[in-house]
Amino acid sequence: MIFICYGNIDTRDDILRDLFFKDYTNLEMQTKLHYKGISMSSRSIKRHLRRLGLRQRGRWSTQEIVTAIQEERKGSGQNLGYRSLTKRLLTKHGMAVGRKSVSSILRQIDPKGVELRTHHCLIRRTYYNKGPNFLVHIDGYDKLKPFGLAIHGAICGFSRRVLWLKVARTNNDPRVVASYFLDFVEEIHVLFLNQNDLGVPRCILTRQPEECPSGKPEMMYLHPELYGTVDYKFSVKLSDVESLKSFCSYPSCYGCTEEMKEHFTSILLEGRRSEPINSEDAKELFQWMLQKI
To answer: Is the overall model pTM greater than 0.70, yes or no?
Structure first.
């Protein structure tokens, strides 16, 4: 039987690498390639993977796996469990290793670390952040899920300054998250009172920064020169920011549907309560509102 491969070699190899690092089986690769107009037999897929230096599960020696794991444990992988480390070995080292093998090796070379992770006691990592707007952490929370609401926030990794904290019906709709980010970019523009200072952070990390050092958020964010650093945002055009808004979804400023807003407003009117003007008033009003609903 003759199999014909369509498309150039670079494209085919890129697709094979992508499918391999996503841990697809040979049969799954064959199916995906077929839908991309590339017809290959299972034997051909194995041959091309060998040519690309991508070895399937069971073809790595124990010493090679141990060496890769020890390399990861010297850096950011020191707190990874066997599941995350298995994924790291695949995506970073191209090593398709079974979870049981990784778990067994970890128990032998890092028994204390396995015990700590079992009890959710992690070793704090050294955290480096060059300055304001070099790295921003964003994350979402569903602590208000019983009310159909979620919280979305972001902080500066250098100073721990809260960049935004929003309440909406979702914390994972990318169009809503994008709207928060663009609002923040415009806030930077106003905050520094410089028409030529419109810029965006260099890096974004979608998780909470547990390793961030404490400090003086406002001073560290607005006056980085006092701490021997600079603002790391890079310039963007206002026209680009405006054009991106068409892809965003802007939730209500009340963080809920119009029907819920009317319901809560009526409760406030019946109780002769007004909207809060500070955080303490908001906490007290929230506790009062919980009793009413």
So the answer is: no
